[in-house]
Amino acid sequence: MSDPTPAPLPERPRLNRLFRLQWEEAQQAYVLLYPEGMVKLNLSAAEILKRCDGEHTVNELIAELEQAFGEADLRDPIEGMLRAAFEKDWIQ
């Protein structure tokens, strides 16, 4: 039986050095480039990953995004995206 408690997120997430986040004009979207390919990101995922610089804490990242988007209560979706990114090794 697996443990339902997810692994804790890094306190100050940063993009894995194997990945590069950049705007891709041909895709008209931000993408994550890595040696084996590319991941096209939606706007929300890109805005979250832009802030994964090893400087922002998770709480700072959430507060900044809530202010930028004029929304409250974004903790759950942001943490969900961070968990998915952590599981895919996009962030460390």
From TrEMBL:
Pathway: Cofactor biosynthesis; pyrroloquinoline quinone biosynthesis. InterPro entries: PQQD (IPR008792), PqqD_bac (IPR022479), PqqD_sf (IPR041881). It comes from the Bacteria. Keywords: PQQ biosynthesis. One of its GO terms (molecular function) is quinone binding. Signal peptide: none annotated. Pfam families: PqqD (PF05402). GO terms for biological process: pyrroloquinoline quinone biosynthetic process. NCBIfam families: PQQ_PqqD, PRK02079.1. Monomer. Interacts with PqqE. This is Pyrroloquinoline quinone biosynthesis peptide chaperone PqqD. The gene is pqqD.
